[in-house]
Amino acid sequence: MKMLKSMMxxxxxxxxxxxxVSVWNCTDHAPDTANYKLNDAVSxxxxxxxxxxxxxxxxxxxxxxxxxxxxxxxxxxxxxxIPVSSILNFNLPTDELKHQLVHHLQSPDFFNMALHPDxxxxxxxxxxxxGTGENVVPGANFQVTGNxxxxxxxxxxxxxxxxxxxxxxxxxxxxxxxxxxxxxxNYATESNLPDDASIKPVIDVHLKLSGKKL
Length: 214
Known about the structure:
Pfam families: YceI. Residues 35-212 form the Lipid/polyisoprenoid-binding YceI-like domain. InterPro entries: Lipid/polyisoprenoid-bd_YceI, TTHA0802/YceI-like_sf. This protein is of the alpha+beta class. 18% of the residues lie in helices and 42% in strands. The N and C termini lie far apart (62 Å).
């Protein structure tokens, strides 16, 4: 009987030690989670829109975020705000023409800035990626999935991205073309328009984002 009691006490002590080790290990390997903020002075989505003739206009729009969550070196969640007021044009020859184009893009024909001042993107998943091809930047290492909201409508988009974390710095580069008609932006897409007045539905978007750990 004494031997049995001794064995039971030994077993209890062993169980307690096992639990202690388990708890210690969980604490020792707690996920490293940090929040990052984009530098909106340099974080942009460069855009390019085409007529059917091949002529194009191009420019940029600012991307902002203060809620980019990175855990154990991988992006886990985040949301981005893209203010329509920040649209710029690069290629037109005069400031007057650039202003006219930007004003038109901000009008109800396109982004309807008065009713929808921001475009928004929310990450739903980031997974490892390896591959090449059209609309894949060199060195792309992750596939980003998320919801893009424009003109009050939300659609899922997926793109390959090159994401780098170096110290406290975050960088993302990606090509993410979008078909604007999926959000109801149908200006100049009628089939009976001449090529020099018909704007293609797909807008090329080149994301160049940079941020720091908070």
